[in-house]
Amino acid sequence: MSEIRIESISKTYPGGKSAAVSDVSLTVGDNEFMVLLGPSGCGKTTLLRMIAGLEYPDAGRITIDDRDVTDLPPRKRGIAMVFQSYAVFPHLTVFDNIAFGLRMQKRPAEEVRGRVENAAALLQLEPYLQRYSAQLSGGQRQRVAVARAIVMEPAVLLMDEPLSNLDALLRLQFRAELKKLVSEVKTTTVYVTHDQLEALSLGDRIAVMRAGRIVQVAEPMTVYDRPATEFVGSFIGSPPMNFLRGTIRSEAGTAQVKIGDQWLPAPAAVAQAGDVLVGIRAENIQASSAAPSNGGVGLRAETVVVEPLGSHLLVTATVEGQLVKVITRTDFEVRPGMPIWLEPEADKLRWLGAADGVAIGV
After folding, report:
1. Helix-helix angle 109-122:94-104, to 10 degrees
2. Helix (H, G, I), strand (E, B) or coil at 176
3. Which run of H or E residues covers position 96?
């Protein structure tokens, strides 16, 4: 068991105007891949460093495998860490880099060789074991850093934005390799990133952070489809979730939302909500050049920008003065200034309070 429990952890740096991490609690299950996601300065790296023992909390405690490690130094926590920078020793070969931690523990030479070779095989580094870091690409150096961590067979693997120094293609390739690797080594992993695509593709669950607090913890598609707050919906997704401001009206047991001078049906659960934000993803809106027929309900909009993106068009339009982004097929005939009708999928609408931006019913 390598479950991590973080209980009411807080951290404020000297001279800081606000807490870097404020009263955060989180449980990471055994062998789970947990992603800490958020913008720069939200506290995710500080939280990771407190798990590692590189920072000490002002309050709260951390347990790993039911053992309180809050006051233990990093070497006694049973963790390994991969940093944003490769931190590969330039004077050592790939083999010696990977073997470094094992040799520091004075493991037998045969054990060192066997474990290094196994880690190299997992990360496709076998042809490079006798090379030095200057002879490696960025992606290969990052593989060495990961191999050096997993060869220690840690109870917990911590990663701080390990792909951020790679170019877009290498990042895509290494992301898939990393997901496969973590599933094979079966190590509890906490991964920090500000890249939503990494978070969605890698994590078993995502903890979204903002201003030192966790605002939602859920499986990737739950975070994407059912954001708990306006911030989460705006931060995750490309393009981000659309939010239209409206007012709920309830009559005779039915509810509607008024957006400007237009109306959409609303669920009974929001009948008493008053002012609301209606969230909808760009891919969950059907665009057409004619008003909906057969009882369909849509919103009149005016096209502002049309962006061809290869597999689809990204259309920016205005609905009652509010911007909405819509993904359409490439053969949809649309141009700036053209009126269109937008039909959102009713079961994909997300309802949030206009005052606090928090999902209604969450």
Report:
1. 130
2. helix
3. helix 94-104
Helix 109-122 to helix 138-150 angle, to the nearest 10 degrees? 130
Mean pLDDT by 10 residues, the chain (362 residues): 92 87 96 95 95 95 94 91 84 93 91 91 89 87 87 90 78 81 86 93 95 96 96 94 94 85 88 90 94 78 95 95 96 94 93 93 61
Domain coordinates of the chain in residue numbers?
4-235, 242-353
Cα dihedral sign for 329, 334, 338, 339? negative
Residue 30 tokens read as 């055994």
Per CATH, 4-235 and 242-353 having the same topology is answered no
Omega prior to 227 cis, within 30 of 0: no
- Give the HSE-up count for residue 19: Cα atoms under 13 Å, Cβ half-sphere: 15
Helices (H), 105-246: 109-122, 138-150, 168-185, 196-202, 220-225, 230-235
Query: What are the residues facing 255 on neighbouring strands?
Result: 250, 266
CATH of domain 4-235: 3.40.50.300
Which are the contacts of 292, defined by CB distance < 8 A and separation ≥ 6? 298, 341, 343
Q: How far apart are CA 158 and CA 2, in angstroms?
A: 13
What's CA 248's distance to the chain center, in Å?
A: 32
pLDDT at 211: 94
Tokens 């978070």 map to which residue? Answer: 199
**Helices and strands, number each (H, E), in the chain:** 8, 20
Task: Name the class of domain 242-353.
Answer: mainly beta
Nearest to 147 by CA among 119, 121, 171: 119
Alpha carbons 151 and 160: distance in angstroms, whole number: 18
| Cα pseudo-dihedral 190, 25, 41, 53, rounded to 10 | -60
Output the CA–CA distances (angstroms, integers) from residue 73 to 61, 90, 182, 190, 197, in the order listed.
14, 27, 25, 18, 33
